[in-house]
Each structure stands twice: as structure tokens, then as C-alpha cells.
């Protein structure tokens, strides 16, 4: 898109130089709405940039306070993921970090319940009316279930990955959330961060992966504080 805009500017300069009045008039009106066009074309990138700017201030506010999750929080997720993996029950669990997920929480059924592996296991049973959507965890509580997440439009995503994986990728591309996915077809467990998946062979590896993510968060918080 930037290349296309650059070419139009070259054509405009060409029209002005050689006095092609009609072409110049059309392009002048086009560039008159240039900033509006930029906002429309790059709305996702602008939103991410603003979110990253706010993220830095939020990290400063979190210094000295409780981080978004502690060991107990993702331990419950590990237990639930292990159980669902053995039975090949599909699941999508999202941890909120610094970027707020209220828009996505509002799309599901708000629960605000205590985080427990049994609750997560029950929510993703095929008989549950909320099993198709995502569960979002905020500050150690299940904020909502059955949430709709944005699907990634990444053309390089592997074809065998289903809707849950595409939703996890889309969510982590737009926010700093961490998504845990259990495949309904294979029972495999994976963690998605920034649009990239890490496959975890078992619960121990899932625990280690989540621990590393929040350890990096704590280190970053300390660096911001200094």
C-alpha cells in the first residue's frame, strides 16, 4: 500500500510538471483526503501502536503491584489442559496481560468466577453451551466464557490448524494476550504468543512455557521501574 501511495505521488508530480490538469485535479482531491485514507488503510497498525504506547504506561503503573497472573493461576490451566488433552476435548483459554480485553469479554457470557481446573474442564465439554468460544482469564479469575475472538488472516498459517488455532493467532497478533489451545483432533497442547505457536508435549512443558512468559514479564516490569 505504501508503494502504491508513493507511485501516486510520482504520477502527481509528473502531472504538475507536464501540466496534465485533469490528472492533477483528480490526484489533488485524492490527497486532500490523504489522512483519512491512511487511518482507514492502517487502522489495525495504528490501534496496535496506540496500545503499545499505553502498554508502557500500564507497565509503570504495575510496578510494585501484583502481576496479572501468579503460579497458582496457570497451574489450574495446566491441570485442565492435561485432562482435556487426554480426552481430545478442544479448548481455547486466553490470559489477559497488559492490553485490556474488555471488548472480547463482552462478546461472551460474563462469569467472574474463581479459576479452577474443574470449572475449565466443565466449560469445554461438548454438552456445554459455551464450549465453542474462548475462556478469558483476568487477574486470576474466569472473566467470561464463550467469547468470540478475531480470526487471523495470515495466509501462511498451516492448513491443518482449525478455527481455535486461527482465533488464538488472531488474538495474540492484535494484543499481548497469551492463548493456550487444546486441539480437538489430536489432543495436542500449544501456547500462542504474538501470533507464534509453541507446541507443548505435556503438562510439564506447558507449565515451563507459561512460567517463562511471566518471568519475562516480571523482568520487564523491573526494568521499566528502574
The proportion of strand residues reads: 15-25%
Shape label: elongated
Mean pLDDT equals: 83
Count of distinct strands:
7
Main sheet: which strands, in order across? Answer: 2-4-3-1-5-6-7
For the report, how would you describe the main beta sheet? 7 strands, mixed
What Rg is obtained from the alpha carbons, in whole angstroms? 22 Å
Q: Provide the domain count.
A: 2
Q: State the name of the first-level CATH class of the largest domain.
A: Alpha Beta
Key traits:
YojJ-like (1; 2 domains; alpha+beta; 226 residues
Fold and architecture overview:
The protein is α+β, with helices and mostly antiparallel strands and 226 residues long. The protein has two domains: 2-62, no CATH class; 71-225, YojJ-like (1, CATH 3.40.1700.10. Helix content is 53%, strand content 17%. The protein contains nine helices and seven strands; from the N terminus they run αααααβαβαββαβββα. The chain has helices spanning 2-17, 21-32, 34-41, 43-62, 71-87, 102-105, 117-123, 163-174, 203-225; strands at residues 91-95, 109-114, 134-138, 141-147, 178-182, 189-193, 196-200. Strands 2-4-3-1-5-6-7 form a seven-stranded mixed β-sheet, sandwiched between helices. Helix 4 packs across helix 9 (203-225) and helix 5 (71-87) packs across helix 7. The longest helix has 23 residues, at 203-225. The protein is elongated, with a radius of gyration of 22 Å. It starts with a helix and ends with a helix. Residues 62-68 and 222-226 have low confidence and may be disordered.
Amino acid at each position: 500500500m505504501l508503494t502504491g501511495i508513493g507511485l501516486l505521488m510520482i504520477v502527481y508530480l509528473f502531472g504538475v510538471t507536464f501540466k496534465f490538469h485533469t490528472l492533477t485535479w483528480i490526484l489533488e482531491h485524492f490527497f486532500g483526503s490523504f489522512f483519512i485514507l491512511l487511518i482507514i488503510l492502517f487502522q489495525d497498525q495504528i490501534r496496535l501502536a496506540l496500545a503499545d504506547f499505553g502498554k508502557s504506561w500500564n507497565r509503570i503503573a504495575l510496578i510494585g503491584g501484583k502481576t496479572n497472573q501468579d503460579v497458582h493461576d496457570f497451574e489450574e490451566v495446566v491441570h485442565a489442559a492435561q485432562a482435556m488433552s487426554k480426552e481430545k476435548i478442544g479448548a481455547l483459554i486466553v490470559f489477559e496481560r497488559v492490553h485490556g480485553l474488555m471488548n472480547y469479554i463482552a462478546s461472551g457470557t460474563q462469569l467472574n468466577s474463581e479459576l479452577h481446573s474443574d470449572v475449565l474442564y466443565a466449560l469445554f465439554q461438548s454438552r456445554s453451551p459455551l464450549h465453542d468460544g474462548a475462556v478469558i482469564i483476568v487477574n486470576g479469575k474466569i472473566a467470561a466464557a464463550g467469547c468470540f475472538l478475531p480470526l487471523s488472516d495470515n495466509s501462511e498459517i498451516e492448513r491443518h490448524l482449525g478455527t481455535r488455532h486461527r482465533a488464538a493467532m488472531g488474538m495474540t497478533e492484535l494484543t499481548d494476550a497469551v492463548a493456550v489451545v487444546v486441539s480437538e483432533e489430536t489432543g495436542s497442547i500449544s501456547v500462542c504468543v504474538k501470533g507464534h505457536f509453541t507446541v507443548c508435549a505435556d503438562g510439564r512443558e506447558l507449565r515451563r512455557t507459561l512460567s517463562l512468559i511471566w518471568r519475562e514479564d516480571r523482568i520487564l516490569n523491573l526494568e521499566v521501574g528502574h
